[in-house]
Amino acid sequence: MKQFTFSFLMFLMISACQNEEGDKELKSYQIQIQEPEKTPDLAPIGSFEQSLLDQGLVDIQEVDPTIYVDLKYSTTDNFFGEDVYQELTRAYLPLDVAEELKTANELLKFDYPDYRLLVFDAVRPHRIQTILWEALDSIPPLNRKAFVADPALGSLHNYGCAVDLSIYDVRADTLLDMGTKYDYFGHLAYPRKEEEMLLSGQLNEKQLANRRILRKMMGKAGFTPINSEWWHFNTTSLAMAKEKYKLIE
After folding, report:
1. What percent of the chain has pLDDT over 90?
2. What is the helix (H) or strand (E) element at residue 102, kind and residue range?
3. Burial class (CB in 10 A: 0-12, 13-18, 19+), 248
4. Considering only CA atoms, which of 77, 84, 47 is closest in space to residue 181?
5. Whole-model pTM?
6. How far apart are alpha carbons 143 and 91 in whole angstroms?
7. CA 239, chain centre distance (Å)
């Protein structure tokens, strides 16, 4: 844990510097896309994935095979450098939420035929939320909430009512440039700071336009953005999620 704490604090210091100078280098960003049309139907289902199926969730690529998936918490390419999803590589949601996501992807394809939604995270079981929370135990709880939702309160991800995603250009074979990578901690990722970042030259017009495309398509399908992460969208409030959906363990 000491090694992790040091690494994470160093990460925060680096992120702060990038806030001032702009996040200009995205070349190292890793993409490990799950494409169902290229995945054998007989791929084994692990215990993690089976538990999600048993709790009534659906694989979003069964609902819409044209959505791309790159679960960052199933890799070490995330903000704390650990794989907590293990064998899970498919993204799961309640059926009605998956259908809303399909609508957003269809709207995107209609306006931009070469674009597809790419999901970084969908349902996040409560036990995983606890792991993420405890991994940052060197940070005071009030400050920790800026990075990970408190499992005592719950996260919309824990109910399958939130999704983290971007846009993939299938012709160019790359993600659209949103100005930062996923799970970037800093003002460059804040939608509420976009105009300020644009005026300071830390974001450019194309990056901002790409974010607006994502927000437009998700909004038309019934999703709501948040003001601190360009990639995060909710389908409902936490109070309503607790009434309508089950907490996923």
Report:
1. 71
2. helix 95-111
3. buried
4. 77
5. 0.85
6. 29
7. 21
